[in-house]
Recover the amino acids of this structure.
């Protein structure tokens, strides 16, 4: 009896030990799963962006057999990744700094390094590239898949199907300066003024077509062709840079953008007025971003309708109207700046990844005066 009793107790003890052990290992698995979920929730956008840019870097490097593309898109992807990586780490009030870091790094590299030819001046390699709309058309009409064509394909034509107008929110050098101005809260959008962007897009395109087909002004006549095979062999890089027409196209184009952008921001008290009414690149970006996989979405279960997200949106998007219609923010005016996410007191907004297309633009409009 005694022996049997001891046996039962032992058995119960063993069973309880086994339960605890299996409970512990189940708990551990569950803990690991929940840590992974937290990590994924925090860094899914970063992982998504890094995958895109590193894939582009490796693909172009292997296909075009040119190491420049690996370095170039490696630098750009890492710089954007740094911003997206720091964004979840920073406090709400400091999150905009993460975006500034990406803007400064990518914008600075492309503006000074590629556009103004700093790389060319230091290493005699990669002549200045005009990455304005006109540069894109010149390269395209020259039948060359290089410089402006690659930049526009990735950032502004096909890229937006993956990351919307993320270029505008995280990397554009014009907006990097405009975002520093004091009119961050948008006063609303002037009705119809946005059509000006289409007029300027057509005028820029026509300018290049006329120069190429009427005046025979081609890339070879502008000496703007990238020298992938070797470095510049001339004696004086500094003086030679002023002979390169691409340099002047880029310089004058940007001077115009910055002057008009800053003047409009002051007059309309709206940092992003240039993006809303003037920038001729937007018509191109709108096409791809319509079908963007990455879009903002509101969890209506968590939302308390406080309106803070709409007040913070620099692009006047009626985020809650999309939410009311059980839709993600399909507006092609969204620049993926994530300001709405950072101000939401209930963490009810996040970036989401799936395919959809929405054709409605819900924007806070003001009558043109
Ligand atoms: S709209 Fe034009 S100026 Fe504004 S961020 Fe986009 S590309 Fe830059
Ligand atoms: S800030 Fe958040 S809680 Fe407030 S209205 Fe927007 S989604 Fe809803
Ligand atoms: S909806 Fe959000 S992410 Fe899109 S522009 Fe407005 S604030 Fe930025």
């Amino acid at each position: 009896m005694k022996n049997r009793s001891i046996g039962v107790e032992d058995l119960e003890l063993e069973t309880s030990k086994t339960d605890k052990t299996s409970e512990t290992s189940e708990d551990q698995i569950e803990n690991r799963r929940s840590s992974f979920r937290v990590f994924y929730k925090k860094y899914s956008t970063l992982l998504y962006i890094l995958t895109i840019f590193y894939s582009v870097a490796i693909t172009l490097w292997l296909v075009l057999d040119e190491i420049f593309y690996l370095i170039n898109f490696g630098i750009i992807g890492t710089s954007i990744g740094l911003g997206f990586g720091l964004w979840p780490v920073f406090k709400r009030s400091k999150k905009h700094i993460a975006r500034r870091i990406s803007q400064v790094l990518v914008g600075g590299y492309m503006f000074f390094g590629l556009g103004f030819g700093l790389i060319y001046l230091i290493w005699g390699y990669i002549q200045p590239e005009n990455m304005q709309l006109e540069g894109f058309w010149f390269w395209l009409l020259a039948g060359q898949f290089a410089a402006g064509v690659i930049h526009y394909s990735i950032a502004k034509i096909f890229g937006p199907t993956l990351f919307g107008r993320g270029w505008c929110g995280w990397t554009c050098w014009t907006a990097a300066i405009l975002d520093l101005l004091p009119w961050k809260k948008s006063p609303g959008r002037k009705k119809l003024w946005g059509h000006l962007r289409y007029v300027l897009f057509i005028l820029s395109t026509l300018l290049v077509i006329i120069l190429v087909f009427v005046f025979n002004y081609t890339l070879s006549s502008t000496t703007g062709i990238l020298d992938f095979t070797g470095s510049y062999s001339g004696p004086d890089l500094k003086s030679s840079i002023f002979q390169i027409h691409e340099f002047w196209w880029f310089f004058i184009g940007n001077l115009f953008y910055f002057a008009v952008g800053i003047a409009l921001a002051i007059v309309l008290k709206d940092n992003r007025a240039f993006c809303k009414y003037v920038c001729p690149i937007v018509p191109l970006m709108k096409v791809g971003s319509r079908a963007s996989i990455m879009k903002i979405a509101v969890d209506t279960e968590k939302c308390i309708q406080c309106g803070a997200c709409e007040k913070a949106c620099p692009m006047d998007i009626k985020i809650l109207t999309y939410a009311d219609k059980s839709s993600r923010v399909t507006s092609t005016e969204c620049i993926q700046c994530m300001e709405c996410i950072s101000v939401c007191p209930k963490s009810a907004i996040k970036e989401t990844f799936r395919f959809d297309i929405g054709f409605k633009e819900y924007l806070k409009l003001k009558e043109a005066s």
